[in-house]
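quick q for whoever's on today - can somebody do inverse folding on this one?? i tried earlier but teh output was garbage lol. tokens:
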């Protein structure tokens, strides 16, 4: 069955960086677009970034553009999210998602906290 397992998140100081990874299994990862989404306390699930199956295109939500970088390693069935210049508003539960929208299958999530 499809499994998406996010790495442990963490606490970042203002302006700090964190890198998330997501190990995928149970489907042909190299043929699937992938995304990251997040949900802050009391808010709706928000799409953060997406990447084509062959990494030929990426896109970002305006709120993270220029600070976050999505990438993937198809040989390792792994998705990444490099988060730089973290801010308190980035505090959320981050999910790895199969596909290009928040409606796809997602992992259990990992907590990221941007300290104030």
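ok took a stab at it. sequence:
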């Amino acid at each position: 069955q499809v499994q998406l397992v996010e790495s442990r998140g963490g606490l970042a100081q203002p302006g700090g960086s964190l890198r998330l990874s997501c190990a995928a299994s149970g489907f042909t990862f190299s043929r699937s677009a992938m995304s990251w989404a997040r949900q802050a306390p009391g808010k709706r699930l928000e799409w953060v970034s997406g990447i084509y199956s062959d990494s030929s295109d990426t896109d970002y939500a305006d709120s993270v553009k220029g600070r976050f970088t999505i990438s993937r390693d198809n040989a390792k069935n792994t998705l990444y999210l490099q988060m730089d210049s973290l801010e308190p508003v980035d505090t959320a539960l981050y999910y790895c998602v199969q596909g290009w929208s928040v409606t796809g299958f997602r992992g259990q999530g990992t907590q990221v906290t941007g300290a104030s």
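fwiw Strands lie at 3-6, 10-12, 18-25, 34-39, 46-51, 58-60, 68-73, 78-83, 92-98, 110-114. also The radius of gyration is 13 Å. so keep that in mind when u check it
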